[in-house]
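Input record (Table S2, row 181):
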Amino acid sequence: MMHKPEALDNFCARLKAAGAEILGPTNPYEIMRFRTSKGVGIIYTGRRGETWNAEALAARDHLDANRGSLAPVKIKGRRRNTATVSALMLRDGDDCFFCGARLDGDVTVEHLVAVAHGGPNHISNLFLSHADCNQRAGHLSAPEKVRIALSSRATTPSPGTPEVSQHATRSEVGAAERSGL
Ligand SMILES: [Zn+2]
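Output record (zinc ion complex):
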């Protein structure tokens, strides 16, 4: 059975209500272009009908699941590439590393091991957090950051949380990362 496509003007209205930015089409084959926290969504039309890119589908899934705001990510503080933010959201979800609450567009990219302490600028050493949480915890050592993250999840462990003890040392954190957790 064919999935009935959602009426586009209705979809557009839902996008706007969720904080998405509606962009103008850039060529005659685009019927809709918009920016959300999932990236730039594009809906094309052609002989074979409507085509939705991955970002457009992700935005639709987000709306269908009533997951709240789709407002594009505004990166405060240090300038970061939105591709990094998208990759981290894909890996970790859209929750703050420190407090576990939804980021909702209030996003900073933080290093687990600070660059000043030799931490790499690689995604394995990066996570997302609220600007305020980052401000409070950004100067701490990696084990202290992990301890804060774990204590905020103590009652509701999430499947993605690495199994690192409350007294984790930096080498234990490194081992957890190397094993892909
Ligand atoms: Zn937070």
